[in-house]
Amino acid sequence: MTINHLILQNLKKNLKNYYLYVFALMFSVALYFAFVTLQYDPAMDDVQEGIKGAAAMKTASVLLVVIVTTFLLYANNIFIKRRSKEIGLFQMIGMTKGKVFRILSAENLILYFGSLAGGVFIGFAISKVVTMILFKLTGLDRIATLSFSVPALVQTMIVFTLIYGLILLANYLFVKRQTILSLFRVTSSSEDQVRRVSLIEVIIGILGIVSILVGYFVSSILFGGTFTSMETLFIAMIFILGSVIIGTYFFYKGSVTFLFNLIRKKKNGHLAVRDVLSLSSIMFRMKSNALILTIITTISGLAIGLLSLSYISYYSAEKTAEHYVPSDFTLTDMEDAAYFKEALDAHGIAYDETVIDVLIAEVYVKDILEEPLDGVNFDSDIMILPVIRDTAVESVNVAPEEAAFTGYNDMMQQFMSLKDSGSIELRGKQKVIPQNYIGLHSEYLVSTYFSSGGLPLAIVNETTFSQLQDDINPEIQLDSSVHIGIDIKDARQLQEAVVLFHETPFTSETPQYAQVEMSQSQKQTFGLAMFIVGFLGLTFLITSGCILYFKQMDESEEEKGSYTILRKLGFTQGDLLKGIRVKQVFNFGIPLLLGLSHSYFAVKSGWFFFGNELWTPMIMVMLLYTALYSIFAILSVLYYKKVIKDAL
């Protein structure tokens, strides 16, 4: 038998075990090629320049390479260990280590670059769909075209050729370091076979659960007023990260074994075949795979969390735009407003107008702050707030000695939460006007020009407003003191009004806003973020799912002898599959549930920085991630079914 014939025979024999590896490799190449193609697409100029996305796209491509490289090296390590006996046999019949390495390299070359070519073709085929998705998310009115990018191909070939070089280096080091005897022991020694639960494991297991719960608790109070300085806030974040990651490692190292041992003791040793095939195996397999499971769980939680936060921002884009621009159009100059209204009247567009006089005043709020804000470079006891008359708000009516706030940003409320009542002071140039604070309302009444920074708007009585107007502090006033809101009555005429808005010759230097454009700007920014995070999250999902699947392939081959014995004892294929299904629920379910739990508490602690809606975006992301992750559990059960069938 020639070397070439041997290579082809080995490739054919091992292809049945490599099919998911080939799929994952092709999928990774396809994603990378499609992603890089976007960077060289002229239609992407508006995305990369208009919303500063070029740096984000390049950073994402680097992270994509890191994820794929880590996966391919890990998968290659699993497969070469599975072939350790075969490598040992080659050396026993007289082959040198160099020749064995050349055989492995030739097989890898055919498999790797064949998958690379297939991945590039798939990436080219889906590049138009990927571009369409990005345009849809960012709201860009562009036509996606199917075009082959030579620079993208060159970049893809360079990157994956370098990865192939790393794989060859890993294989060379493996073959060089192993003796013939050790090659026959690699598989049997790769998993922890200890069956006794020690006291140390019990302690580690309890510490793991406690550490995770402590991290969750601190995250739940992170922005609740307990940590009032930037230094303590930073320390708390580092503590949460360390506590949860270390707790996750301890959970796999000891908690799973400890908890399942309690279940086994509760059964008083009367374990059904389903329990033997599920609980007993998982107790010790997860311990030996604690590090890789911790990495998978942590990055899964990170991917789900980031995708949830980006979707929260995207989902809340319209509501955020309404907060910044409460009317369809807001202007800050009466003359400019008159020009715009003339244009609307000339085109028969009906509208409603709201005019609100706005003053800026220093407001002393120490008495109504829940907790003082430490470690900041400004006086948190005094807010510079816009002030309006209560007659401008139909739903609010205050007495001369009363004041109310409205439109306080959710994020700011977490840092500087307000009491329901108390005393405040409105400070003019010379006078101080004491007021009774009577509560906070939710309406946003003026544009972001007056209420930037997320601080609230103060509503006072006409009498108080006049007193403040007579004692105005000119140093803190804006160039404009009037908010003009224009709402189009017929939504079908809104786009025409936007065109007129841009055609109107505004003369004032103060800003004018269109709500629909603010919303589009928000969607462009958050849409690109969601696209990039989703791309990276999908890549990690596929690679981590494949890693868990490969581990199950290894375990099934190692346990094949046990299945043969059980089949000879009379257990049916269905009996064994019941235990296997339970096993896969735990093998894939535990990392998934921990990742979901980590992401939930992370998102819950700081979601208000990103938008106005928590549950719908987060639940949708979690359900989608769970559905995709479950595919690999199903594939694992099908592989076990094949192994059990071949056990007799």
Automatic annotation (TrEMBL):
One GO BP annotation of this record: transmembrane transport
Keywords carried by this UniProt record: Cell membrane, Membrane, Transmembrane, Transmembrane helix, Transport
Record has Hydrolase as a keyword: no
Major location category of this protein: membrane
Tree of life domain: Bacteria
GO CC, alphabetical: plasma membrane
One protein family per Pfam: FtsX
Transmembrane segments: 18-35, 55-75, 109-134, 154-175, 196-218, 233-252, 290-314, 526-550, 585-603, 615-640
Domain ABC3 transporter permease C-terminal positions: 60-169
Membrane topology: Multi-pass membrane protein
Location within or outside the cell: Cell membrane
PANTHER family hit by this protein: ABC TRANSPORTER PERMEASE, ABC TRANSPORTER PERMEASE-RELATED-RELATED
Family: Belongs to the ABC-4 integral membrane protein family.
Name of the protein in its database record: Bacitracin ABC transporter permease
Species the sequence originates in: Halalkalibacterium halodurans (Bacillus halodurans)
